[in-house]
TrEMBL record, chain A:
GO molecular function: allantoinase activity; dihydroorotase activity; metal ion binding
Entry keyword annotation includes Zinc: yes
The protein's name: Dihydroorotase
Record domain Amidohydrolase: where: 358-436
Record-listed E.C. numbers: 3.5.2.3
Taxonomic path: Bacteria, Pseudomonadati, Pseudomonadota, Alphaproteobacteria, Rhodobacterales
Gene that this polypeptide is encoded by: pyrC_1
TrEMBL record, chain B:
Residues in Aspartate/ornithine carbamoyltransferase carbamoyl-P binding domain copies: 6-148
Similarity-based family: Belongs to the aspartate/ornithine carbamoyltransferase superfamily. ATCase family.
An annotated GO cellular component: cytosol
Protein name per its UniProtKB record: Aspartate carbamoyltransferase
InterPro entries, sorted: Asp/Orn_carbamoyltranf_P-bd, Asp/Orn_carbamoylTrfase, Asp/Orn_carbamoylTrfase_sf, Asp_carbamoyltransf, Asp_carbamoyltransf_Asp/Orn-bd
PROSITE patterns with a match to the protein in the record: CARBAMOYLTRANSFERASE (PS00097)
Function: Reversibly catalyzes the transfer of the carbamoyl group from carbamoyl phosphate (CP) to the N(epsilon) atom of ornithine (ORN) to produce L-citrulline.
GO terms assigned for molecular function: amino acid binding; aspartate carbamoyltransferase activity
Keywords: Pyrimidine biosynthesis, Transferase
UniProt-listed Enzyme Commission number(s): 2.1.3.2
Catalytic reaction(s) noted: carbamoyl phosphate + L-aspartate = N-carbamoyl-L-aspartate + phosphate + H(+)
One Pfam family recorded for the sequence: OTCace_N
Length: 438, 318
């Protein structure tokens, strides 16, 4: 039993941010309130607990710092199986805990794709054994993510897959994609897709425009994202399958998303924290830690994405955690691997948006915890009574200089290296048990 | 005399005064190269390695000759045939070479930014001899010297860069250099070979060759880089020649004393009419080759001075 007092409670359901208290019992949120904390009751309960042989609870004085639901990070790559040298469930779990992420939703784009129930069982077992936070798994949508044959969607659901995705591979054959959707619809399965026209974006590593032309790098028009999204929306209209766009990163795609939602299509969308806090110019002198997929966009696009999260048009913010070792990044920009680690930097980077006035803390937690949990049918991501006590206590104002070698991830490829950040995690709890303390 | 660079990676970091310094020194090397005795000792005792990850005959020969005329020990490495094939990374290759203590490293690489990456890992001075579609600084400098000698100045000129802009590092370096020296630059070429956002660099973009060439002082043609194309930029070479190839009729739109330039190698009958290329009254293409050696001598001389200054006084970084 733990009682958190003097906490700034960030509640994404009611979109409130107020001082209060929260009591955890048996791993779930038992009570919350904004009046005086129930100390007398607490003592009485403790006595009752002691009588029953239970351990006495402790009180955490939050000293006015923020207490929010633990982050549910949709789309984390853990590199197991296949590339454990880049990240393991143990290191990813510790990184998540240090970053206030209490549930990692892992991607199936591992060196052998997670496309069979046996493969899923393997990662579940590894996660169970080594990760100190909760882990749920995504399944591939097609075998080997090759876009030719659908996986055993029924078996995968039974085995615990929370959604189906080929990650950054686009199922180019519309007939096959349509069948996947129709089959998924009949089972109520969620499809996560990467909206992108794969021919237009082939070989591109930056967004077209002045910067790309100056650097002489192969570039893709931002329109490729809208084209991919438009195609997918037509298929959703045909099949009625539940669809989540992994990352919407361009302003041009937003009206299409808005229209789809207004027409009642079962559609949601996400965006990575990098596309909310960085833009194309950050690549600077060919800095490969800023090579992500889709590539960083213009400042106008970035601002439009922040507004879309504020209005709720974009539902989910994720870290798109993609570990890459030094060797994969120490190459000419075109040849370097894409992706950035993000589990530990998601929260401090999100604080940039809060301090800049773009988003409130409850809005951020709606996108980082509540919405992804709802989308995947998880009961976490909220502060309401009865929800699991997955919590993060943080100081949104604490400044620090980010040193990538201090990250707990096995891979250190963060674009925020050497940057001034604000926002430190003070403690993380999973089912009421503390898994991280600063 | 001002030249504060450790490397010559591109035109972008250069100050106009530094560009003038290179050109002024190159003028002196033009005279040396025309003399009967073409030798100087300014690079004596220094080792120059030419590392070409991409095929080159002209540029490599030009750098080799420049180094030899200044007394450097010059070594050529054709990197396509060596360790890259065995899977060695660019960084490892750089570190291996660095351990041999070269002083000047001349690098050409097929990927944009690769030379910048390499320069971070070595102690010597690095000269970019062309990286992907990014920069080719010595080409822009030799073009500038050619223009300055032919026109008597390098400012307030109308200059058209024509053809395959998208795949051209020569176009990017030239655009930057000519802009820094306060010229009016036009880019002329098919829309499919025009990179996006070029108007934002302060130049005018033309699709029509005749319109683009109207009253210009300098016509700079580019090679159609068929080997870099992944298909479908232009319908055919004969249509390209018809619409964008430089012939007497199109050249007539330029000023009567306009000069014609080409970085070579030329595709005669694709981007330029053979007769125009050979017209000694208009074409300065052979002069460009001559200026190339002089400009490279000047650039290596200046970098070597900074290198020696850094050796003598390690506290002061140039």
């Amino acid at each position: 039993m733990t009682l958190f007092i003097n906490a700034r409670l960030i509640d994404p359901e009611t979109l409130t941010d107020q001082i209060g208290w929260l009591r955890v019992a048996e791993g779930v949120i038992a009570e919350t309130g904004t009046s005086t904390p129930p100390q007398a009751d607490e003592q009485a309960r403790e006595q009752a607990g002691e009588q029953a042989g239970e351990q006495a609870g402790d009180t955490v004085d939050c000293a006015g710092k923020c207490l929010a639901p633990g982050i549910v990070d949709l789309g984390v790559k853990v590199s197991e199986p296949g590339e454990r040298n880049k990240e393991s469930f143990a290191t990813a779990g510790r990184a998540a805990a240090a970053g206030g992420v209490t549930t990692m939703i892992t991607r199936p784009d591992t060196a052998a794709a997670i496309d069979t129930p046996e493969g899923l069982e393997f990662v579940q077992r590894r996660a169970q054994a080594d990760a100190i936070v909760k882990v749920r798994h995504l399944s591939a949508l097609t075998k080997a993510r090759a876009g030719a044959e659908m996986v055993e969607i029924g078996f995968m659901l039974d085995a615990g897959a929370v959604a189906f995705t080929d990650c950054d591979h686009v199922v180019t054959n519309t007939k096959i994609f349509q069948r996947c959707m129709t089959y998924a619809k009949s089972l109520g399965a969620l499809i996560i897709a990467h909206p992108q026209d794969p021919d237009l974006s082939k070989g591109a590593c930056v967004t077209s425009g002045k910067f790309a032309s100056l650097r002489g790098l192969p570039a893709v028009s931002p329109m490729a994202e809208r084209m991919g999204f438009d195609r997918d929306m037509a298929l959703i209209e045909m099949t009625g399958a539940r669809y989540h766009a992994d990352q919407i990163t361009t302003a041009r795609a937003l009206p299409a998303l808005e229209r789809a939602k207004a027409n009642g299509l079962p559609v949601t969308a996400g965006v990575s924290i990098h596309h909310l806090t960085l833009n194309e110019f950050d690549v600077g002198d060919y800095r490969t830690f800023f090579k992500v997929k889709p590539p960083l966009r213009s400042e106008e696009d970035r601002m439009a994405m922040v507004d879309a999260v504020a209005s709720g048009l974009i539902d989910v913010i994720c870290s798109m955690h993609t570990p890459q070792d030094e060797e994969s990044k120490r190459l000419p920009f075109e040849e370097a691997a894409g992706g950035a680690v993000g589990l530990e930097t998601l929260l401090p980077a999100a604080m940039r948006l809060y301090h800049a006035g773009g988003l409130t803390l409850p809005q951020l937690w709606r996108a980082m915890a509540l919405n992804p949990a709802k989308l995947l049918g998880l009961d976490s991501g909220r502060l309401s009574v009865g929800a699991p006590a997955d919590l993060v206590l943080f100081n949104p104002d604490a400044p620090f200089l980010l040193d990538r070698f201090k990250l707990k991830s096995k891979s250190k490829n963060t674009p925020f290296d050497g940057q001034r950040m604000e926002g430190k995690v003070l403690g993380t709890w999973v089912d009421g048990t503390q898994v991280f303390a600063a | 005399m001002t030249f504060r660079q450790k490397h010559l990676l591109g035109i972008e970091p250069l100050h106009p005064e530094e560009i003038r310094t290179v050109l002024d020194l190159a003028e002196r090397y033009v005279d040396l190269n025309r003399a009967a005795e073409k030798h100087s000792d300014v690079l004596r005792g220094l080792t120059q390695i030419n590392m070409f990850f991409e095929n080159s005959t002209r540029t490599q020969a030009s750098f080799e000759l420049a180094g030899k005329r200044l007394g450097a020990d010059v070594m050529n490495m054709s990197m396509q045939a060596s360790s890259i094939k065995k899977g060695e990374t660019l960084i490892d290759t750089a570190l291996t070479l660095n351990a041999m203590h070269p002083d000047l490293l001349v690098v050409r690489h097929p990927h944009s930014g690769a030379v910048n990456l390499l320069a971070e890992k070595v102690n010597c001075a690095v000269l970019n001899a062309g990286d992907g579609k990014h920069e080719h600084p010595t080409q822009a400098l030799l073009d500038a010297l050619t223009i300055r000698r032919a026109k008597g100045r390098l400012h307030r000129l109308n200059i058209a860069i024509c053809g395959d802009i998208a795949h051209s590092r020569v176009a990017r370096s030239n655009l930057m250099l000519l802009g820094k020296m306060e010229n009016r630059v036009r880019l002329v070429g098919p829309a499919t070979l025009m990179p996006s956002g070029m108007e934002e660099f302060g130049c005018e973009v033309f699709d029509d060759m005749r319109e683009g060439l109207k009253d210009v002082d300098v016509v700079m043609m580019l090679r159609l880089q068929r080997e870099r194309m992944d298909g479908g930029f232009i319908p055919s070479e004969r249509e390209y020649y018809h619409r964008w190839g430089l012939d007497a009729e199109k050249l007539a739109y330029a000023k009567p004393d306009a000069i014609v330039m080409h970085p070579g190698p030329m595709n005669r009958g694709v981007e330029i009419d053979g007769q125009i290329a050979d017209d000694i009254n208009r074409s300065v293409i052979q002069e460009q080759v001559e200026m190339g050696v002089a400009v490279r001598m000047a650039a290596m001389d200046l970098l070597a001075r900074n290198l020696r200054a850094a050796h003598a006084n390690p506290e002061v970084m140039v």
